[in-house]
Design a protein that fits this description.
The chain contains no helices and eleven strands. The relative contact order is 0.32. The protein has strands at about 1-5, 10-15, 20-25, 30-40, 45-50, 55-60, 65-70, 75-80, 90-100, 105-110, 115-120. With about 120 residues, it is an all-beta fold. Strand 5 (about 45-50) and strand 6 (about 55-60) form a beta hairpin. The mean pLDDT is about 95. It is elongated and about 50 Å long.
Length: about 120
């Protein structure tokens, strides 16, 4: 059993900042990558940013230069520092982990989601 627990969402004014955290726990053998996705009302879930175990990062064009993803491998935790927030960043943000639960079994796991609302 694997759990991903997110924290840090909330309401912020445009131009403000928020920091999301996601901690993975349970039967984890090795995490390959972790990331953040978001889903706005009426839209499909989209990748925001992800980071590999080795530290390679990838960002959606819409957040480049404003968001920074980082991780602490020892704590199985990923962070998303969001700055210069815009109303269009409003969405439910989901943590994702690509991980092995033992040496041969891997899968994709999701958190429950945290709401980020940016007011204009």
């Amino acid at each position: 059993q694997v759990q991903l627990v997110e924290s840090g969402g909330g309401l912020v004014q445009a131009g403000g900042s928020l920091r999301l955290s996601c901690a993975a726990s349970g039967s984890i053998f090795r995490i390959n990558a972790m990331g953040w996705y978001r889903q706005a009302p009426g839209k499909q879930r989209e990748l925001v940013a992800d980071i590999t175990r080795g530290g390679r990062t990838n960002y959606a064009d819409s957040v480049k230069g404003r968001f920074t993803i980082s991780s602490d491998n020892a704590k199985n935790t990923v962070y998303l520092q969001m700055s210069s927030l815009k109303p269009e960043d409003t969405a439910v943000y989901y943590c994702n982990a690509d991980l092995y639960t033992n040496w041969y079994a891997s899968g994709d796991y999701w958190g429950q989601g945290t709401q980020v609302t940016v007011s204009s």
